[in-house]
Design goal:
It contains 4 helices and 4 strands, in the order βαβαββαα. The chain is an alpha+beta fold and about 90 residues long. α1 links the parallel β1 and β2. Keywords: ATP-binding, Nucleotide-binding.
Length: about 90
Amino acid sequence: LGNPQLLILDEPTVGIDPSLRKKIWKELFALRDNGVGILVTTHVMDEAELTDKVGLLLGGKIIAFDTPQHLKESYQASSIEEVFLKAEGE
């Protein structure tokens, strides 16, 4: 990877077994902790919950953006998937 300031990943763990997925996220956390900015696109909502900030898109527009915890509190939801479903209905 070298030493990037920003790492952009599109669906980085799709089709990967759970053990390797966990290793990838561990490495992403280490990169983040060392100051690397990381942008991840994913349809896997439980992965979105692992990030520092979540932007939910619908029809090419951002319908919600905040920390996973704040989004769940704001939408009175127990998961980011539930936040998306509620935000899409607004």
